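Please, structure for the following, as C-alpha cells.
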Amino acid sequence: MQGNLNEIDIHSIFQLIELGQRTGLLFVEADSNHHSYFRPGWDGVDYYACSHSDRPSWYVFFLNGQIIYAASGDNSLSRLNDYLHQYQVQVQLEQHQLDCLKTFNTLEYASLWKLLEENVINTTQVRSIIRSLVYETLFDLLNLQQGSFIFEVGSALVPQLTTLEIAPALSHAIKQVKNWKLLYPYIQSPEQIPVVTNIANLRSWLPEVTVNKLQHWADGKTSLRRLARYLHRDIVTVAKAIHPYVQQGWVQLVDASKLLTDKPPSPQQSRKQCVLCIDDAIAICSAVQQTLQAQGYEAIALSNPLEALGLIFQLKPDLIFCDLVMPELDGYEICAMLRHSRAFRLVPIVILTAKEEFLDRVRATIVGATDYLTKPFGNNELVILVEKYLNYPRL
C-alpha cells in the first residue's frame, strides 16, 4: 500500500492497518514544500528549515494492527535523551554496541532495549517513554498536510516492548491537534523557542516562584517540544500554559531557524570545505569537480567505489555525493557503512540516482542518506544543494 496524502489521509491509513490487523512498517515522507503545522489561510514558512533535509520523515511499526513503536527519520538519540531526562539517565553506548543494535532506523528503540537489559530503567518507564514517542509522532503526522507514504508488510520489530491500540491512540492525538489549532496564530510550531521579553509585567501578574520557573524554562534555547519532554507533559498542555503570556507580549516565541542563522561562523568554516563525489561515470565526476572548484570548494571525485572507501577516512569530506548504481559497491552499501562510523554519523550524504522512485528514497533514508539528487542535474542545482548543507553549522 502506497500513495499520497492528498489521496488518503493519515487517519484512514491507520484505520486500514488496524482493520487488516497488519504487521509491518509505515514510512511517511513530507513533500519538500510541506508546511506541517496548521495555520489557516497561510502558506507560511518551513519550521524544519534548521534540519538536514527538506523532507522530514517518520516511521511507525505495527504488530497485528497495533502500534509497537514510532519515530522520526533523523535517526538521532536527542529525542530519547530528552525523555530520559526525567529519570536522570542519558544514552551512552560504545560504537560497537551501536553497530550491534542499529537495525534499519531503530537506533532509538534499540537503545531503549539496551537500557532495559542493563537495568538502567525498568519496564514501566520504557512503556511510558514509547507511549510518549508514539503520541509525539502521531501528532506530527496528523498535522502533516502534504506527503507520500508506503506501508510494507513484514516481520515485526523485535523485541516487542509494548503495544498500543490504534483507535485510542489516534483519538488522543486528534484531540491534541484540535486543541493545538486553537492556539494559532500566537503559537505555530512546537519547534518555536520561548523567550521572556517583559519580566516586570510578569512579576506584577504572577507569583515570584512562577516567574522564576518561567525564566528558567524560557531560556531562549529550549523549544516548546523539548520543554514538554523535560516536564513530562504533552505539547498542547505546555503551549496552553504559555499562551496567555505570548498573547500579552510578555513572552516571545522565536523560530529555531533564525537562531541558527544568527550564530557566528565556526572556526572550521575558515578552511575550504571538502566535497567528495563517488560515481563510476567519469563525466559526472568531472562535472561535479569543476563546478564546485569554481565555487571555492575543495572538490574531489573518485570513480572507483572501493578506492573511495579506502580514502574517505583520510580525506574527511564535509559532504559526500554517492552514485546509487555502481559495480562492486552501490550507494546504499557505502552509505550504510559510513553511518556505522562515528566520524561520518553526521556528515551529509546525498545519493545520486538516474530515476526518481519513491522506493529508492525510502531505502536511501533507511540506510542513512540525507538527501538525493536526480540525474541529469544542472550546475545551479548542484551548487544550491551543496550550499544548503555546508552553509549551516551541523546540529
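Residues 269 and 391 are 9 Å apart (CA to CA). Confidence is low (pLDDT under 50) at residues 35-53, 260-269.
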